[in-house]
Structures are given as structure tokens and as C-alpha cells.
């Protein structure tokens, strides 16, 4: 799939994979298929809320770096029940991953799930955490993201927003661009509204 997408893209546009854990040999295959980098995160509650061991996440990030892939990550998915100590622990893990971009994302509550009882952070709270991530992250990390896109997050230091189309695990419709998803033009408008200069051209984050 990656090879087919790569053929359709202008050569300067980076192709980023967001997928399950993988080993070094699989990372090399991704690179050979034309991927520039991967998104991978050590999530809050790893091994407890999820069934994935934290060490497995870290091994995947290292495999990507060894294969020459850029790594993007994020402090996520943050809910009201998470303490500042828990959040800081993941911020440090993300920082030490030497990513092309980091940032923070709140968990979107899905009614009827086990985590529904905790609710969801407001945009003001997640914007504060986005600012903390930016301050705690090296200047060598150019990208700081927030998700889902919002102006308050961009004002707080997010210079990277994600447009979405197709399926979305945070949505109940098949084509999220008709619902929760934000297109490129809307993300650009948010960044401009927040005072960012939007540059045209391929990303340098990975």
C-alpha cells in the first residue's frame, strides 16, 4: 500500500506510517517501501489500560530509528483521571525518543466504553499541557502537535495540526471529514488565527 501511495505523491512529500508495533526487519521494509517516518507513542496506561507492554513501544521506536525512519510521537491519550506525574513521565519518554515532533492529545470519550466514566478534558486543559510539552522538549524537535485541531492549542504552542479523512477511531461515521474530521484548509485557518506563519511545501518534521 505504501509503495502505491509513494508512486502517486510528489517525491518531496513525506509518507508517514501509523501502525502496530514492528521489529527492525519490518522497519527496513517500511523504509524500502518509501516511508519517511512513523508515528508511534508510549501511551498513558500502557500495560494496564492497554494490553501492550511499555517496553514493546520503546523497542518499536528504536527499531524505526535504526532503520533510518523518523519518529513522531505524542503524549496521549490524556483523560481527567491522569495525574501530572503520569503525564510528566510520558513527556520525558517522548522527549527521549528524539522525535521529529511531539505534542499532546486528549482522549475522546466513547459512550458506553470502560473509560466513559472519566469523561474528557476540555480544550483549555489540553492546551496547557501542549504548552508544557513544548517547554519540556528540546528546540531540536521542530514540531509540536495537538489533536483534535483547535485554535487554543495552536496559541499554546502547537504548530502542527492533523487533517483527517476516511475512518477515524474517534468518530461514529465512516467518513470523518463529514463529521469530526478537519480538512487541510480548516487546519491552516486555525494556525493563521493563532498567529502562525503557514509555509507551503513538504514537512520537515520527519
From TrEMBL:
This is Biotin synthase.
